[in-house]
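[agent] plan:
  1. take the single chain provided in the ticket
  2. run structure prediction with default settings
  3. attach structure tokens to the ticket
  4. add a short note for the reviewer (M.T.)
[agent] executing step 1
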Amino acid sequence: MPTLTLSGCAPVPLAHYLKALGILRLVSEQVDSSAKGYWQLDQFVLNSCFDRETLLNFFLDSYRPTPILSPWNGGSGFYFQEGKLNQKDPITGNKIKTGVRNQPTAGTRVVEAILKSTSNRFEHYRSTIIATKKLLQSKGFQEAPEAAAKDDLLIQLRSIWPDDAVRWLDCVAVLTNAAKPRSATGLLPAYTTLLGSGANDGNADFTSNFMQRLAGLLLDAKSDDSQNSRQQLQSALFGYNYPLTRIEALAGQYSPGTAGGANSTSGFSSKYSINPWDYVLLIEGALFFAAAAVRKLDTNQDGSIAYPFCVKSTGIGYASAAISDELADKANTEEMWLPLWNRPCTQGELMLVFGEGRAQLKKGKAATGVDFTRAIVELGVDRGISEFQRIGFFVRNGKSVFATPLNRVVVQRNAHADLLSDIDQWHDCLRQKAGPLAKPAAPASVVRCLNVLERAILNFCRNDSADSIQVVLTSLGQAERALAKSLKWTTKDTVRLHPLGRLHFKWFENANTGCCEFRLAASLAGMRARPVRDRDFLWLRQMLEPVEEESMRGRWVTWDKNPSNDVVWHDGDLTGALNDILARRIIRVEKSGVEGWPDWSPRCSRLEDITAFIEGRTDDALIADLLWGLSLIDWQNPQLNEIKPSDQNRIHYDWKMDDDHRAVPSTFYAMLKLCFQPAANGRTIPLVPAIHNRARFGQGEEASKLAARRLRGSGFPPLVEKLPVAATVARRTAAALLFPIRPRDFSLLEQITINQPKSQNT
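[agent] step 2 finished; step 3 output follows
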């Protein structure tokens, strides 16, 4: 079979994509049912019985246009305009209308031209127009119907139109069950995004434009016009550059670059223009989207229809992205994802793909641009598609809707994308409550966090590196933090946002970039106090936000209805926040009456990481973000807690390192930390809150004196009595006391701090 590269067909603009579908459909249905097509280097390749010359001759001499009509529109060519007198109204200055509709329009003229034609290729078109006119006359319509009459007309057209015209009707509108129908049938037409508001965009009627382009190309018998039509077809199919291949006609929303207007040419402005064959073929290609509209007849709660590869608009993921792109008064609020395939495919095979017309996630059908991107990398779409071209329908240049290319997404398997299923329900609730269409409007901080989170998810879908996963995790933490700050808004109304939690432990494994900030944050995020006399754990997360645990399943499920004083986290200064947390935990330990320091973590900190923190060599903002994100993980998972907290000799420690090449913190830290160690082997050092208080307020020397006195009184005389320490170092050292360390690290601190007896084997 000859192989033709159609250089005039490309994934963008939308007009050229639909044109490629139209060529394949017409060749397959009217000549060669075995014809195949595919995309290669952003050009459409056609395998069929045609070579270049015979393909041109087919469209010029044999192509039979699909009867594409829209008698429900005023500009469809079925209704005359109201006549006007030469006299003008003295008030408005406009010509006085006669009240009689007898004034022909460009639309009515082209309808009559088709009816008067004798060409066999228009026979089907003529019979459809005649049947339509009879129906309109029987109903007495002198102008386009509205409301219930329009709904009834759309329903009755299905019973009189031939199959290919009904296919066009299915591409324009889908009949849905309406809660409050306007007609007796109980059905309500829902119009598709691809064809505007019923095959029109404002006053521009697509079907009238289609018929006018056909008349100019195929009904005019002049020899010079015939030659011009051939050159226009060569330009449309093969990208040939001929003069005068474009005419002054509307391209509609499908080719924004040819819509004219300011800055659209080398001068100040230009007129709209289009190659007439481009418009004819793109409308023919739009019928590819009809089958799914029939087979997938359903509605969502918001009233949107099931349309091939069409989801709610999401204002992220492209250069000009803005939240306003999602607003109902700014855009059509829907976007399309056009499939590109790189293997030869017949029309029948493509119809199956378009017939499904959906992307699937574990939670169900993809509903937004973020969902669709996830479905692509999670194998929700698995039909030999290599890429998707994303198209948004935005109001630009006044009130015109433009089909704007947004971005391209490659279909590839992301091994870690399944992690996102943990947040599906929570993310959907957050978008419902904080999205641009939410009433009342969400706090600005929550809206920003939602936007940042969805950008992170899209980036993660394209790149599943540990850095990308970590960004998603920190974005989740930022969103959780914003919700906790706006708790009154979070918990009111019918849509209540619960705290996010119980993330799979694989989040921890896959987000680990190996940096010290991650290790320090993880050691804090998993930290909790050992239970005392069957009391509940005191998790560190309870000091970040007001949450309570569901005791039956051990997971964070709800906000604390009676917030306690345990929530002491504050943004801005990590050192101050950690010191406040430690001070509060000291109060809780004193009240519990437990001996020794009860906190432990399944992921202890490295001494060299603690040293870097004390010396100010860490990114404190990153530690804070990671702490919030990592606190959302299910730290009770056995995979993260392989050793019981009561086993002092084998606390799990997964940070691999060489013990002979470790950076050891200062003696000041060692003295203070030894005063905050767990009770072990009958050894207990009583808690002295003043040690931490002195250090957190910058009184390093006083803190070291108290620590030395406490150690000596407990039978561990230190090598020094006091240490003059700078205020900044003292405060950061006090905060570093919160980081849990291993028992053997306590032994190391004793070796460098405590005066060991000579007889003791060190």
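[agent] step 4 note for reviewer: Confidence is low (pLDDT under 50) at residues 291-304, 642-661.
[agent] ticket updated
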